[in-house]
Write a structure and sequence with these properties.
- About 85% of the residues lie in helices and about 0% in strands.
- It contains 10 helices and no strands.
- The chain has helices at about 1-20, 25-40, 45-60, 65-85, 90-105, 105-125, 130-145, 150-165, 170-195, 195-200.
- The longest helix is centred in the C-terminal third of the chain and has 22 residues, at about 170-195.
- The model is unreliable at about 1-20 and about 195-203 (pLDDT under 50).
Length: about 200
């Protein structure tokens, strides 16, 4: 009980420190929480897994992406052990990992993480849930940046169909989806009309 109380106290203090801009101190409290809860509840308890994900997210927010990526992978491993693979927290973990990888410039690895998150989201919530639409949007934006415009269009159109069923007209997610879909179509047109390297050499 003492360890649990200390752990909960550190959760609150960590939130206050981060709000006040003390990132390093906040990180130390993430680590303290993990240690205390591991001692009180066991290393594989769900609370420990969630605390590890919070630590990884803190590292990513602080721009420490090289540290955040392995921290996300470790947290996902613990989340899968605690909850099973088909769980909302695991899906969210893969999204966070994908964003960190994208920001590091590792787009192929980011796409793998995003696809995994989408796959889990469909299994957990269903194909027509708006959370699934959000996952498709995230993947579509990444694919557009990777030059995979045709597949990006597929993802954004699927998200548009989901949003039409689940969100009212004028909802911000629907407006953003329309913008993302337009971007993907523009990228597809540029790729289609751009001359190949061989054609450029001829001209």
């Amino acid at each position: 009980d003492f360890c649990l109380s200390r752990g909960l106290g550190d959760v609150y203090k960590r939130q206050v420190l981060r709000t006040e801009g003390h990132a390093q101190e906040a990180l130390e409290h993430y680590e303290r929480t993990i240690a205390l809860w591991s001692e009180a509840l066991g290393e594989h308890h769900p609370n420990v897994a969630i605390a590890k994900m919070s630590k990884a997210s803190g590292l990513a927010r602080d721009g420490r992406l090289e540290e955040a990526v392995p921290a996300f992978r470790e947290a996902i491993e613990h989340l899968e052990a605690a909850f099973g693979r088909e769980h909302p927290n695991v899906s969210a973990g893969y999204v966070n990992l994908g964003i960190a990888l994208k920001n590091l410039g590792q787009r192929e690895a980011a796409a793998v993480a995003m696809r995994t998150s989408l796959e889990i989201c469909v299994a957990v919530y269903g194909a027509d849930n708006r959370k699934t639409g959000h996952r498709r949007e995230a993947l579509g934006r990444l694919l557009t940046r990777m030059g995979e415009a045709q597949e990006a269009i597929v993802q954004h159109e699927a998200a548009a169909d989901i949003y039409a069923k689940t969100l009212e007209p004028g909802h911000p997610s629907r407006l953003l989806n329309a913008m993302n879909l337009g971007d993907a179509h523009r990228r597809a047109c540029l790729l289609y009309t751009s001359p190949s390297p061989r054609d450029r050499q001829k001209s």
